[in-house]
TrEMBL record:
One of its GO terms (molecular function) is cyclic-guanylate-specific phosphodiesterase activity. This is cyclic-guanylate-specific phosphodiesterase. The chain crosses the membrane at residues 68-89, 292-316. It is found in: Cell membrane. Pfam families: CSS-motif, EAL. Keywords: c-di-GMP, Cell membrane, Hydrolase, Membrane, Transmembrane, Transmembrane helix. It comes from Mangrovibacter phragmitis. It catalyses: 3',3'-c-di-GMP + H2O = 5'-phosphoguanylyl(3'->5')guanosine + H(+). It is an enzyme of class 3 (hydrolase). It comes from the Bacteria. Residues 320-571 form the EAL domain.
Length: 571
């Protein structure tokens, strides 16, 4: 997406740049126009990072890339790093808060359940009883059963006459509760009038029963909440009104200083319908709340990661770019050589043809394997140029030997070559000029390439109609093996070295090989085993498919043109 935006920006910039350039020629140049020109040029240059831009010189592009890699890129990595760390920090805090909240909420649920069952039980037991010593003794006994209740009282018509400590004389008026839930439970917080003697406590009432909540219970709960930096609120479910709160939310350094609102994370659990909800809230810190040393360590790590990523990308790009640039130059100067590896009849060892293999020796990079530069050439759209160079060189260097001994030469091509009518014409013309018969030229197309598209099929048919042969290369490495076998658009099939390597082994590939042998015996095409290195492989191939051909170090390594001519002559 940024690449796409940049491409569009780049295109517009280049257009504007040309307009500005033309204006510069006719106007006396004001300073601001020079500034605009410089900015547009920079933008066009950056856009060329995302596509092959032929207008910019390689060196300029590389300089722009370097500037980008060591300015914008590390900053982007730094920002991403900080975002990821912030996000991770937040997730971690949520986990910790969730764990503490679950413990507290479970405790609150236990307490609520105890009050609920006490109110039900005691209301049934003590409705309309008078405050006799026996009643007081029974209340005392009942009190022992409850962990969170400190005192039980009995009231008649709003007057508390009896408690588990004894008769209340004179009876005390039970005040109107501060909150009444839908199921008729009344709550009073910090009530100091009922027990007298300067004791303030939370009171719960329903029917004739008055329960005095143990202050220790609330104290323990508050301490728990404070320790975890949380805030516990009792909320009325229907109205959402907060009726009791313990603990406070900690202040955040930067946010509060700047007066920004902080993100409060909350978990709520409600009792049976119409009762109370308990909410646990916490402020989620972010990296700005870290102590100064933590912030410094984090920023340094982020910058370090950004720079490390820049360096890695720089070295990777430098290697790629330099190889890319040098390959372009090598193609322009046709700075390659060819070697020819003989292909032989397996049973007799007689040479029947050669495969032309490209070699590139760069003054800086040394010998670069075709396995490296051919895929690079394919990615950068230079592979077709290579095919033309190889075709021209091979036919010029080896046609005399081919004609003299009626041999063929195999040339590696890519699907784009087969699709390209101009290449087919070019090849026909060359073959004509050097006086070869088209059947002495084999075009190898790798099975890994997704070559089964319609236009490739058409190209293959055209080539075969003109007398050229088509070989399916590296058979066994792709995923369209069977479809290739059943198509009739080729003349030879080259079995990849990894299948040949399975000969005489106990591997899974050996099973593939044995199944393949059954299929290959039925096929009326030339079969070439690649990478034949050992005598037992030769014996196996000769026994299983006597008509098969072989190519490999057991017979010959790739040879230069002079050696290739002399081995055929000496045979
Ligand atoms: N270990 C071992 N290796 C053996 C043996 N016999 C042959 N080889 C190597 O196996 C490769 C066979 O070529 P390929 O399958 O077409 O695979 C080729 C082909 O896909 C590509 N390539 C080479 N030349 C060209 C070219 O001119 N054009 C294109 N498009 N691709 C080429 O590069 C690949 C590698 O080429 P090379 O490095 O020349 O490697 C060659 C050859 O040197 C053996 O007994 N043992």
């Amino acid at each position: 997406m940024p690449g796409g935006v940049c491409l569009i920006c780049g295109k517009i910039s280049k257009k504007l740049l040309s307009v500005v350039k033309s204006q510069l020629r006719v106007l006396t140049t004001p300073g601001w126009l020079l500034g605009v020109k410089a900015s547009l040029f920079r933008c066009a240059l950056i856009s060329s990072l995302f596509k092959g831009d032929t207008d910019m010189s390689e060196a300029r592009k590389w300089r722009a890339k370097k500037r980008f890699l060591f300015s914008v890129f590390p900053l982007c990595v730094f920002v991403v790093f900080m975002c990821v760390v912030s996000w991770g920090y937040r997730v971690l805090q949520q986990r910790v808060i969730d764990n503490s909240a679950v413990i507290i909420l479970n405790r609150v649920s236990e307490v609520a359940e105890e009050f609920r069952s006490a109110l039900n039980h005691l209301n049934n037991k003590y409705s309309d009883v008078s405050c006799t010593p026996d009643t007081v003794r029974q209340l005392k006994n009942d009190l022992w059963k409850y962990e969170f209740i400190r005192e039980i009282g009995i009231s008649h018509h709003g007057l508390m006459t009896c408690t588990s400590s004894g008769a209340v004389l004179p009876p005390v008026q039970v005040p109107v509760p501060q909150v009444v839930t839908q199921i008729g439970t009344g709550l009073m917080f910090n009530n100091a009038s009922l027990l007298g003697k300067g004791i303030a406590t939370d009171v719960i009432t329903r029917g004739d029963i008055v329960l005095f909540v143990s202050p220790m219970m609330m104290e323990t709960m508050d301490r728990n909440v404070r320790e975890h930096g949380l805030m516990l609120s009792l909320v009325q479910e229907e109205t959402g009104k907060v009726i009791r709160q313990s603990g406070t939310l900690p202040v955040g350094r930067l946010y509060d200083r700047l007066g920004l609102k902080r993100h409060v994370y909350g978990i709520e659990r409600c009792g049976p319908k119409g009762s109370m909800c308990v909410r646990i809230s916490a402020v989620l810190n972010d990296v700005t709340d870290l102590p100064a040393w933590g912030l410094v360590a984090l920023v340094s790590t982020g910058l370090g990661v950004g720079l490390a990523a820049s360096y890695l990308l720089f070295f990777y790009r430098r290697r790629r770019v330099s190889m890319d640039v040098r390959l372009k130059r090598a193609i322009r100067n046709e700075n390659f050589s060819l070697v020819y590896q003989p292909i032989v009849r397996t049973i007799t060892g007689e040479i029947v043809g050669f495969e032309a293999l490209i070699r590139w020796r760069d003054s800086l990079l040394g010998d670069v394997s075709p396995d490296i530069f051919i895929p690079l050439a394919e990615q950068t759209g230079q592979a077709q140029a290579i095919t033309r160079i190889v075709t021209k060189m091979a036919l010029r260097e080896i046609s005399e030997t081919l004609k003299k001994h009626n041999l063929f030469v195999s040339i590696n091509v890519i699907p784009d070559d087969i699709r390209d009518v101009t290449f087919i014409d070019y090849l026909s013309e060359l073959v004509n000029v050097v006086g070869l018969s088209p059947h002495q030229v084999v075009l190898e197309i790798t099975e890994r390439a997704n070559a089964s598209t319609e236009d490739v099929d058409v190209g293959m048919r055209v080539l075969r109609n003109r007398g050229f042969n088509i070989a399916i290369d590296d058979f066994g490495t792709g995923y369209s093996n069977i479809s290739w076998l059943t198509s009739n658009n080729y003349d030879k099939i080259k079995i990849d070295k990894f299948i040949t390597d399975a000969i005489g082994t106990d591997s899974i590939n050996n099973k593939t090989l044995m199944n393949l042998i059954v299929l290959l015996r039925e096929i009326e095409k030339d079969i070439v085993f690649e990478g034949v290195e050992h005598l037992y492989q030769v014996h196996f191939i000769s026994r299983e498919i006597p008509k098969a051909f072989s190519q490999g170090w057991y017979f010959y390594r790739p040879l230069d043109k002079t050696m290739a001519a002399s081995v055929v002559a000496s045979h």
